[in-house]
Specification:
Distance between the termini: 34 Å
Number of domains: 3
Structural class: mainly alpha
Order of helices and strands: HHHHHHHEEEHHHHHH
Radius of gyration: 22 Å
Oligomer: single chain
Shape: globular
CATH architecture of the largest domain: Orthogonal Bundle
Strand order of the largest sheet: 1-2-3
Number of helices: 13
Helix content: 40-55%
CATH superfamily of the largest domain: Intergrase catalytic core
CATH class of the largest domain: Mainly Alpha
CATH topology of the largest domain: hpI Integrase, Chain A
């Protein structure tokens, strides 16, 4: 039986789990801990819906052994999530936790990319016959345009302009809308899919519309990505890849392409920043740190000495 959160924090708990699913992070472990937090608040803070230091410390101190540390991590991330969406919340200080570096994204080899997309082309037929067309297109479109997972799955039919070869993003991070110029080959792929999808779902709203009539969920996207990854036969020695890695690989390969062509990254990086919908130009510098060998062949890092360390934009 699926547990229904009932405390004053129920909406925030669901939002945090949704956010973690978008980022390809663990949700099962969090569900267990947040179920306990929800029940604790129902019993001890039934009228509260704002995360205070008192509530955070009460729940952490209620844990036995190493459970307290795990709970503190959950409370810190809960506080960070709530402040991110504009709510007042207490954030556990960083000094409570050992410093950890963000895990690097999974960087695909050419063969791994080919294997993955070959697997999407052979997605097994299921009860929903449109899936065998949806799976190859949704992941190719995300990779070709460097979209965030939530952006590609929430696309609407009216966001596509097949005359101008553009896609309008209205569900971007930080509420930043943007218009993407897309190659004619990618738009032709989308145009063919649109015709096929219209036969299955006339007058649909969402470009990738689920049988329920809504956009597909984060859980659906993640599960089908993993299914195709398993089918591809790709190695897992580097760790587990997630849909967000398609976006990272788009940016990294775009930079490598410019470097190989001798393009001036000072000129091109701002374009990449706008295209990917980064909140600030600094966020785009993250991808520079993934290409040390290629950058060693350029004078880009001689602008002001060593580039400053920047936080991984998607985890901010």
């Amino acid at each position: 039986m699926i547990y229904e959160f009932q405390s004053g924090f129920s909406g925030h708990i669901k939002g945090l789990l949704e956010h973690r699913a978008v980022m390809g992070r663990d949700t099962e472990g969090y569900k267990r801990l947040l179920k306990n937090f929800d029940q604790f608040c129902l019993k001890n803070h039934p009228q509260k819906n704002s995360l205070t230091q008192e509530i955070a410390f009460d729940w952490c101190n209620d844990g036995k052994g190493g459970a307290g540390t795990k709970r503190a991590c959950v409370m810190r991330n809960m506080g960070r999530y709530l402040t991110f969406i504009g709510e007042e919340a207490y954030i556990m200080p960083q000094m409570f936790f050992p410093t950890q570096r963000n895990a690097l994204p999974y960087m695909f080899t050419d063969d791994e990319l080919k294997n993955f997309f070959d697997a999407t082309d052979h997605y097994p037929r299921k009860r929903n016959p449109l899936l065998e067309y949806t799976i190859p297109v949704i992941f190719r479109l995300q990779y070709a345009c460097g979209m965030r997972p939530q952006e590609v799955r929430k696309l609407r039919c009216l966001d596509f302009d097949f005359t101008q070869n553009t896609i309008y993003i209205t569900e971007g991070k930080h509420n930043k809308d943007r218009q993407l110029a897309v190659s004619s080959e990618v738009m032709e792929m989308c145009k063919k899919y649109d015709k096929i999808a219209n036969r299955f779902i006339p007058n649909r709203v969402h470009f990738f519309q689920s049988p329920s009539g809504e956009a597909y969920s984060n859980t659906w996207l993640l599960a089908n990505f993993h299914k195709c990854w398993e089918m591809s036969g790709n190695s897992t020695e580097q760790g587990s890849a997630v849909p967000y890695d398609l976006r990272h690989n788009y940016a990294s390969r775009k930079l490598m392409h410019w470097i190989d062509r001798g393009q001036d990254l000072n000129v091109y990086l701002p374009y990449l920043s706008v295209y990917m919908g980064h909140e600030s130009f600094k966020a785009t510098f993250y991808y520079i740190h993934l290409l040390p060998e290629r950058l060693a062949c350029t004078d880009f890092t001689n602008l002001d000495g060593i580039l400053p360390e920047v936080r991984y934009e998607e985890h901010s």
